[in-house]
Amino acid sequence: MPEDTARSGTPSPGPEPKRAKLAGERPRKSHRVRRADADESVLDTVETLLRETWLAGHHGASDAPSVPGAFGWPAGDQQGEAVFCRSPPVPAKLAGGNAAECEFDVFVHELTERGVGVATRESPEQLSELVSQGGRPWIFAVSFTLKGERARIRSVRHGWGYTQADLLDVVEKSPLRIDAPCKYFGQCSGCQLQHIGYEQQLEFKRHAVERALAHANPLFAALTVLPPLPSPLQLGYRTKLTPHFELRRHERPEDVPIGFMISGQRRVLDIEDCIIGTDAVRRGLAEARRNARANMAGYKRGATLIVRETNVPPSGTSGDLASTPNAELEKSYTLDPRSWVVDVVGDLKFSYPASSFFQNNASILPAFTGYVRDELTKWSGKLTAPDTNSGALRTLVDAYCGSGLFGIACHSGFDKVIGIEISSESISCAGENAKVNNATNVEFVLGDASKIFEKTSASPDNTAVIIDPPRKGSTPDFLDQLVAYGPRVIVYIACGVPAQARDLNYMYCQGAIVVDGQSASPKAKPTAVYQVAGIQPFDLFPQTYHVENIVTLVRKN
Ligand SMILES: C[S@@+](CC[C@H](N)C(=O)[O-])C[C@H]1O[C@@H](n2cnc3c(N)ncnc32)[C@H](O)[C@@H]1O
Question: Can you tell me which residues form the catalytic site (predicted)?
Fold first, then answer.
């Protein structure tokens, strides 16, 4: 099935439409843009706009063309290529401007789930008219804008089906726009949402989760997504920063930018201070920059530096880490990727090498881990109710466990906790962390998460599984075995919500999830069928588009 059909659920648009003719037919170089390089979230947002707004009233839902068909982009699979001319940057026929012109006013119609404005040269009314007459708007992707704004932009380069543009000026501001607290906002690629207040950021994230779910499966639009739980700190929360630099010929060490990438560019922006970092991390950033400049002759191409917060016994005391109560520890930082870092989560202590994975917002971790623990306790309690006949949860599996955060935070009340993790460094930390925190019922094993089902002999009826995979989500191999095993409760924690939504849809297509009384009818009946018992986003990364999402699935049969 062609990619566009698979995504949109509408028929393939048939033969590839002709590329719009470019004005100003002077000799110029063309460049190819691969579908695989496109920002999928821009295409998804355009698709939603097309379906729900632009084509509303003009087509029945079933005959609405898919995005490539509607916009004259090449249909086809991931390898599809569009050929554009390097100059002018926008087909003049569509842009309506001088061929040499690359600055325009545009109207922002929506933000993608990554906080990028999707804009056209047409106002909403003009667009509606254009589309009703079969016309095709050209799409611009513009960061740091807001829905409803009119903005002056400069087109930078073509993506597959849209043009990447820089924001020059906001001509008509959204009432939601506020002054960003950071002086680098608008250039730095690290934060995308500093121009709206925190309540709006939370609403943006709730909506992003809803959209990701509905995009994976229109039936998931019926699911209730709770408002995201806010971060206690909205600035000064990040416990890790990784600034970098690249050396270019003839650049003096003092001129080399050290910081984060410029939004939409492959160049580094010099960042002296980052206000989303904790105080300790900000001190560390200043030292990391000084060290890098002093030692620049020792680098060949450049480097990524690490600055990580750690907790240490109070200076001037002889107390050691293990015996010092968490509340008395002081914040410090390390710049050495091999050194050990200590994080505290409520009464618990976690140690791991500075280069390893650990959640980067300590202020929200007690609430984050507490929610998972409460979900498990709640369902364990419900399962022991006299009419359920099933008994409490006794075994907990912590898949993709890292240094043991969730397994250790949730261990009490279970007979046995088994964690599995592919990184040998993280799994040995997990074992040590279990000892330090007196979690004697916890065992951590090194391996691929999908092998965990070979290792557990516990009854699925009394087992809960926590899944916390990397941003790309889980795998069909893991999910197939999960459903075949059929644990009573599944808590799926995700930093990549679109991948989580895809995985839930995978389970739906296996017949393993029922939504609104509806389920898929695969040839083979699944062992276990789940209902979605809760969707709770958490804001671990204020000021950015990132959101963590926890979905609880409870077995029905
Ligand atoms: C998002 S992190 C979560 C870690 C941990 N749950 C936490 O919150 O600290 C994902 C973890 O999955 C691990 N991982 C990636 N692929 C894996 C696989 N196939 N099997 C087991 N673990 C894997 C990574 O090494 C990483 O530690």
Answer: 495 (nucleophile)
Measured in Å, residue 384 CA sits from the centre of ligand 1 at 31
Q: Which residues pair with 220 in a beta bridge?
A: none
In the chain, which segments carry CATH 2.40.50.140?
3-176
Centroid of ligand 1 to alpha carbon of 398 (angstroms)? 10
Confirm if 209 and 497 have CB atoms less than 8 A apart. yes
- Is 79 annotated among the ligand-binding residues? no
ipTM over 0.95: yes
pTM of the predicted structure, to 2 decimals: 0.86
Region 3-176: CATH code: 2.40.50.140
Residue range 27-84, pLDDT digits in tens: 344 555 566 667 778 877 877 777 777 766 554 444 444 444 444 444 433 333 443 3
Query: What residues does CATH 3.40.50.150 cover in the chain?
Result: 216-229+363-555
pLDDT tens-digit series, residues 176-213 = 999 999 999 999 999 999 999 999 999 999 999 999 99
Cα–Cα dist 106/477, whole Å: 45
Is 423 close to ligand 1, i.e. is its CB under 6 Å away? yes
Q: Which residues of 239-266 are buried (b: 16+ CB within 10 A; e: fewer)?
A: bbbebbbeeeeeeeeeebbbbbebbbee
* Residues annotated as part of the active site: 495
